[in-house]
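User: My collaborator sent over this chain with a note saying "see what the structure looks like." That's all I know about it. Can you take a look?
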Amino acid sequence: MFLRHILRSGEFYQVLNLVDLTNWSSAEIASPICVYDRSHIEGGITLRPGVDGETFESIRGKQMDVRGRPVLSDQAGVFGSPFADSARTRIRPDTVEALVVWFTLSEYPNRALTADIETYAERLTQYDIGHPGQIEIVT
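Assistant: Without extra context I'll predict from the sequence alone. Here is the result:
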């Protein structure tokens, strides 16, 4: 989504430092990287396809139909996807702990993904945005 915006408009809009860094990294690898406020995620996290009639509210206030699309869900329902950001779990100025999810194709080499994540983690520290915690690659 963000990469499409950059290609169309030529502009890199700014939101919050963590979101901006994530958008920059996402544009570099041409794949969605999403960041969520961990305090608004309830219980365990599941990656699954959306089901008929399932929606979530985007940060733009629109109800997003997720039928058949990959989504992240918790006990409260869908909170994220690679195609739209969720209002419920969006990063806020007072966010303390974030969950960063890289949505990549299965063909994306683990070595390249690891290097890209390391670059992202270095930038978090370099730009004094935060400090990376646990990093886990799930395929």
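A starting point for your reply to your collaborator: The chain has one domain: 2-126.
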